[in-house]
Design brief:
The chain has 210 residues and is α/β, with parallel strands linked by helices. The protein has 2 domains: 1-61, no CATH class; 64-208, 2-Layer Sandwich (Nucleotidyltransferase, domain 5), CATH 3.30.420.10. Helix content is 40%, strand content 22%. It contains 7 helices and 6 strands; from the N terminus they run H-H-H-E-E-E-E-H-E-H-H-E-H. The chain has helices spanning 6-16, 20-25, 31-46, 121-138, 151-157, 169-180, 196-208; strands at 68-69, 79-88, 93-102, 108-119, 143-148, 184-189. The chain has a 6-stranded mixed β-sheet. Strand 3 and strand 4 form a beta hairpin. The longest helix has 18 residues, at 121-138. It is globular. The relative contact order is 0.15.
Length: 210
């Protein structure tokens, strides 16, 4: 096997390495933006990437506290799947919200994460959903399929459970308003294993203070 080139190494780091320490060292830098910088360096060194590796241009790094967002497709999808999750280490404890948006062809169009400070798991679950719904709306989606592993969240939004928590009630109300803005909504409670990417984003939000 030939020795790897610098281009190969840079692309491997961009895709496979967590890059957490570098992200923490530079205020406002996200994992996605750092990966894009490494990819751009590889392109300059070795030419354009293979078609299967091409990526949309990422936005500039967000202000501290803003959600980390991956590239959006150039052609907006009218229907999106929104996978959302939340994590709290200690419940309450350091918490993060995460969401992943997928188009009808199965392509990930956005990965989002936000660090929430000290919060409960249920608060983080709602915040993950709000992240996903707000971004779906900015992408022009008219229909959404919502997937979450929180039975409480899905049953509250579906009207099967009441919202008794004064902390969750404003988040519930905001989620309902957002959902009413779509022409079609389906809510799905899924096992945690089927929500792994959103779970990853919520935990990265904690680890990397997105």
């Amino acid at each position: 096997m030939p020795a790897p080139s610098l281009v190969d190494i840079l692309r491997h780091i961009a895709r496979e390495e967590p890059l957490s320490s570098t992200v923490r060292a530079f205020r406002g830098l996200t994992r996605e933006h750092l990966g894009q910088l490494l990819e751009e360096a590889a392109v300059r060194l070795g030419g354009a990437p293979e078609p299967s590796e091409s990526r949309a241009t990422l936005p500039q790094a967000p202000e501290p506290g803003a959600p980390a967002v991956s590239p959006s497709p150039s052609e907006p999808a009218s229907r999106l799947r929104v996978y959302s999750d939340g994590a709290a280490r200690g419940n309450p404890g350091p918490a993060g919200a995460g969401a992943v948006l997928i188009d009808p062809a199965g392509h990930v169009v956005a990965r989002l994460g936000r660090f929430l400070g000290t919060q409960t798991n249920n608060y983080a679950e709602y915040m993950g959903l709000l992240l996903g719904l707000k971004h779906a709306r900015t992408l022009g989606a008219r229909e959404v399929d919502v997937f979450a592993d929180s039975e409480l969240l899905i049953r509250q939004l579906g009207g099967r459970y009441q919202v008794k928590s004064p902390t969750l009630k404003p988040l519930f109300d905001e989620a309902r308003r957002l959902l009413e803005g779509f022409t079609r909504v389906k809510l799905h409670h899924v096992p945690r294993a089927r929500n792994a990417e959103a779970d990853e984003m919520s935990n990265r939000a904690i680890d990397e203070r997105m």
